[in-house]
Amino acid sequence: MRASWKQPFQYPRPSEVIDHKANEPVKEKGAGGKSKQRARHTTRTLKQIGVYLSLYRLKLMAVLAMVVLSSAFSLLGPFLAGTAIDRFLISQDSGFLWFLVAMAAVFVLQSLTSWLQSVWMIGISQQTVYRMRKQLFDHLHRLPIPYFGKRQHGELMSRVTNDIENISSSLNSSVIQVFSSVLLLAGTIAVMLWLSPLLTLITFTVVPLMAIGMKWITNRTGKLFKEQQRNLGQLNGFVEETLSGQRIVKVFSKEQSVIEEFRAHNERIRLSGFWAQTISGFVPKLMNVLNNLSFAVIAGVGAILALNDQITVGVIVIFAEYSRQFTRPLNDLANQWNTLLSAVAGAERVFDVLGEREEQSDEGEAAAVEALRGDVVFQNVSFAYEGREATISDVSLKVSSGETVAIIGPTGAGKSTLIQLLCRFYDPSSGVILIDGKDSRRIRRESLRAHMAFVLQEPFLFEGTIRENIRYGKLDASDDEVERAARLANAHAFIVRMKGGYDARLRMDGTGISQGQKQLLAIARAVLANPSILVLDEATSSIDTVTEIKIQEALQRLMQNRTSFVIAHRLNTIRGADQIVVLQDGAVIEQGTHRELTARNGYYSNMTDRQDMMP
Ligand code: ATP
User: Fold this and answer.
1) Which of 415, 425, 585 has most ligand 1 atoms within 8 Å of CB, for mutation?
2) Counting C-beta atoms within 10 Å of the first and last residue's C-beta, which end of the chain has fewer, N or C?
3) How far apart are CA 122 and CA 116, in angstroms?
4) Does ligand 1 have an atom closer than 6 angstroms to the CB of 9?
């Protein structure tokens, strides 16, 4: 695979496929120490979510007030019903109508407050995830290139979409539910104790059963939900990869194996989804049984107590209703707990990305440059990719402003890496690169790249018109400037022949336009950018002779009077270069002009003798 600046969307090397586990939240591994570690992680993530939520403090307080009110009304409803039985059915008091009105008001208010709490909370959660999504996307664009080399695009996409969506739905409902469940639970227990401590105690006999049942279920579903989320992320990555690499898949007739692999991913999601949902679906059933059990106990014991005049019939009704209300929040807690856990895990993944160092954060004393002459010196530059042996070893090279350097060498020699060092996608492990006499690390990356332009083998086209694609080289260019650049790049003629001309729309994968035309557009883009330093990766694919001549002509024009680094494959280009650098295994093995190198009888002259290059 080529380095990432060349082909933004491509197959990752197997070694580059993300280790998903590395970014997973710490897992519970049984005993003591580990579970503490997980709690610490969760607390940190919750705190981070809290920072976002703190922006909506007032609204949140209003939501909390509504939660408190609606819980209070929920408690009041059954209480009034029980009181009604005692006062109006048993004692035959007057004023039943007013009592009914009051009860109706309580039920209406209960619905109103719970509706308000959810509407306001939805507002808060949508605003929060809107900010998170925006920050995440902005941040992704400020991360250094090596970060993307180590991760699948789809997996990152899954964080922007799935994980954020999880946070959103959890904030929408789970947070409120958990909070109101706790409140309701506390309130119910308090009122029950006040009415009859004895009956409360008896009602509570089912609690240990519930607690054991729920623990058993959440232990299993928690892991399964997490696994389902991870599997979904992997599937996303896989789909994104195979769709953007469709051509490769087809060319290598890999459809069947890709389908097979997809089937395996799909199966994993099916299994984890099935078990997570089946087991968690068991919660309401279990609760139901326990609920009925507790109802029976209350009715039986309550009747005995009532016969002994220890409580009234109304209290039995209140208890029966409360016991239902009491298991419901427990039930909700069990249900929402998993959703909350998976949202926290999602949030953790989002904050992981947000916590990554931005490319610009290590700029230190680097400053912006207004203009560049284009003098470039590599002084004993060495470089190794993370965890690898040196890819560039002690390269020294001096290029004066306006010169053309042809970099040649066998595949894997380090040509692209050398260019990536020049544009500061990576910095040298040792040695320095001087640009206009200044250490390149002292020049801000953005500013340095603003003076550079790239014409790559596989030019990257965006979804948009031809004009927009060319204008990418200089965003404020006028239509006239765009057209002038296209003329200089020999692209004008083919553009006007297209339906829609400069406004013809291009697809991201570049279908409907030839390889040669893509290159002409890339050249037009570079002409418009008018860079001091040009990087050109010559295409190896053969293009029809007429277009080839047009490309060569346009490139000659483009390279004039600017420092050009060409990863060269064509003998013509190499011959015309001011100096030729031959790289092998990351080291410069020959350096000089065409004439000097042919005289030397080394790698270069051998290569040209074999004539295995394009003319
Ligand atoms: P080609 O002509 O095939 O494009 P090249 O001369 O441009 O090859 P580079 O792409 O610079 O070679 O790669 C040089 C070495 O560095 C290769 O061994 C390659 O596997 C390795 N390499 C390239 N990019 C990375 C990366 N992002 N992480 C780790 N190793 C890399």
Assistant:
1) 415
2) C
3) 10
4) no
pLDDT tens digits, residue range 455-488?
887 778 888 899 999 998 888 889 999 999 999 9
Q: Whose CA is nearest to atom 26 of ligand 1?
A: 385
> How many whole angstroms separate alpha carbon 369 and alpha carbon 384?
28
Domain count for the chain:
2
- Between 324 and 123, residue with greater pLDDT: 123
- Residue 524: pLDDT band with limits 50, 70, 90: very high
Question: Is the residue at 331 inside a domain?
Answer: yes
User: With pLDDT > 70 as the criterion, what percentage of the chain qualifies?
Assistant: 89
Ligand 1 mutation pick, 147, 386, 388, max ligand atoms within 8 A of CB: 388
Quote the Cα angle for 489-490-492, to 5°: 100
Nearest CA residue ID for atom 31, ligand 1: 385
Largest CA distance in the chain: 121
CATH number (domain holding residue 322): 1.20.1560.10
Are residue 320 and residue 459 in the same domain, yes or no?
no
CATH number of 604's domain: 3.40.50.300
Q: Are residues 280 and 136 in the same domain?
A: yes
Q: Are residues 411 and 341 in the same domain?
A: no
- The residue whose CA is least distant from atom 18 of ligand 1 is 412
- The residue among 586, 579, 587, 582 whose CA lies nearest residue 602 is 582
Residue 368: inside a domain: no
User: What digits encode the pLDDT tens for the residues 49-64?
Assistant: 889 989 999 999 999 9
12 touches ligand 1 (CB under 6 Å): no
Atom of ligand 1 at shortest distance to CA of 417?
11
Lowest mean pLDDT, pick from 146-160, 380-394, 494-508: 146-160
Give the domain extent around 334.
Answer: 43-354
d(CA 202, CA 293): 12
Atom of ligand 1 nearest to the CA of 3: 24
Residues 327 and 395 in one domain: no
